[in-house]
Amino acid sequence: MKMVWILAVSFLFFSHASCTNPGLKVRVTQKALEYGRQVGIQALQQKLRQIQIPDISGKTHVPVVGHVHYEISGMRISAFNLPGSAVGFYAGTGIKLSIDNAYIHITGHWRVKYLFISDSGSFDLSVSGLSISEVIAMTRDDTGRPAVHSAGCTANVGGLDIRFHGGASWLYNLFSSSLENPIRSSLIREICPKVSDAINGLERHLKTMKISSHVDKYAEIDYSLVNPIAITNTFMDLDFKGEFYNAAQHKEPPFSPPPVSLSKQADHMMYLGLSDFFANSAGFAYYGAGALHLNITDDMLPKHSPIRLNTSSFGNLIPQVEKLFPNMLMLMNLHAKQQPIMKATPNNITIEVWGAIDTFAILPNSSLAPLFVLDICASVSMKMAISQMKLAGSLKLSSKTSQWISTSKCGSLKLCQPTPEGESGCFSDCD
């Protein structure tokens, strides 16, 4: 007995330990289920209308009269209404769908034989008080895709009202009461398989669902499920990997996702939780792919900007620039020196970036002459909130450091000019 308890505790421990922190967490609430019910119930109604009711034949013994042989054929559902339905979470399993007071209208043909007398005609059958209860189990398959299957279905039929057309009423009244149980049993046998078929159709769709996609030529994102779907009586949590990869090579970053927690509120249909791992894995992937760089030229600046990206404009700040390269356009290459880092807290997001700006003069032959390099390290803090379906926030530059790259003895700005021999002649503002 002691060994059993040890094994049970060990199982619980390792089950908990094997849980992986997601980069992206989604919580689905009852409000989302209600929205989905409106769409899903219409699809289910169309599916149930496809029920094929097999022909029924038999004989029944009528007192005094004797045996009456009957055949019911060509039964077709002409109407299937589901006025009352409810959907909710089924803790630990999935979703429970309940349908009450459904109504079915069926048409068909009848034939009866009694002694040497035979007759035939058509009929209308109204089925009321139909109820269906279906539990849809939701889990994660081995590929990280969501999976669903039927975990239990029950169906019950209330009252049946048959109205015959054609033939002699005294004849079909002999067997009308004998049809109720066969038709009820046939409907009950056919309903649950149709519901399961609708669920299987969804499962086939889920098996083809993409769990990763290319963002652009530099990166792709993996959004497979990393944990089994957690389901309570009020919400469902889905843990997605939420990790960016370098498109050229899948390389894990040197950091792991932290735990993601969401509010217990259920005022909205869905809640989204993003950890800083989501953004940092993107920074790691793009930096590794060499994508974090940008060339800035004068034509990219607003036309009304008082500062232009040319040596004449920069000459007001650095006279040597205009002196060495008069009336020339400039190009700035902004690039990261290491991956940007985002740190998220409940009330604040901080982004730290390290980069450099290589500045060039564009010579008449379109070649570039290096001017100076500006190293930049900045920390930006953001506070965001959603108000009236709009994302709002404030931005604050927490800290900023920059320096001019220089190799001159006086430690100030160094300007370089190519010589006719192809070498660079350099001048500093202390020369």
Structural summary, described in words:
The model is unreliable at 1-17 and 402-431 (pLDDT under 50). The termini are far apart. Strand 5 and strand 6 (117-140) form a beta hairpin. Strands 2, 3, 4, 5, 6, 7 and 8 form a seven-stranded antiparallel beta sheet that branches. Strands 15-16-17-18-19 form a five-stranded antiparallel beta sheet. The protein has helices at 2-17, 30-48, 169-172, 180-207, 276-288, 311-314, 319-324, and strands spanning 24-29, 56-62, 66-81, 84-90, 94-114, 117-140, 146-156, 159-165, 212-214, 219-222, 230-231, 235-240, 243-246, 270-274, 293-297, 330-345, 348-362, 368-387, 390-404, 414-418, 424-428. By secondary structure, it is of the alpha+beta class. The relative contact order is 0.10. It folds into two domains: 39-207, Bactericidal permeability-increasing protein, domain 1 (Super Roll); 212-428, Bactericidal permeability-increasing protein, domain 2 (Super Roll). The chain has seven helices and 21 strands.
What's a concise summary of this model?
With 431 residues, the chain is an alpha+beta fold. The chain is built from 7 helices and 21 strands. It folds into 2 domains: 39-207, Bactericidal permeability-increasing protein, domain 1 (Super Roll); 212-428, Bactericidal permeability-increasing protein, domain 2 (Super Roll).
Structural topology:
Blueprint lengths: L1 H16 L6 E6 H19 L7 E7 L3 E16 L2 E7 L3 E21 L2 E24 L5 E11 L2 E7 L3 H4 L7 H28 L4 E3 L4 E4 L7 E2 L3 E6 L2 E4 L23 E5 L1 H13 L4 E5 L13 H4 L4 H6 L5 E16 L2 E15 L5 E20 L2 E15 L9 E5 L5 E5 L3
Antiparallel strand pairs: 1-12, 1-14, 2-3, 3-5, 4-5, 5-6, 6-7, 6-8, 9-10, 10-13, 11-12, 15-16, 16-17, 17-18, 18-19, 20-21
Helix pairs in contact: 2-4
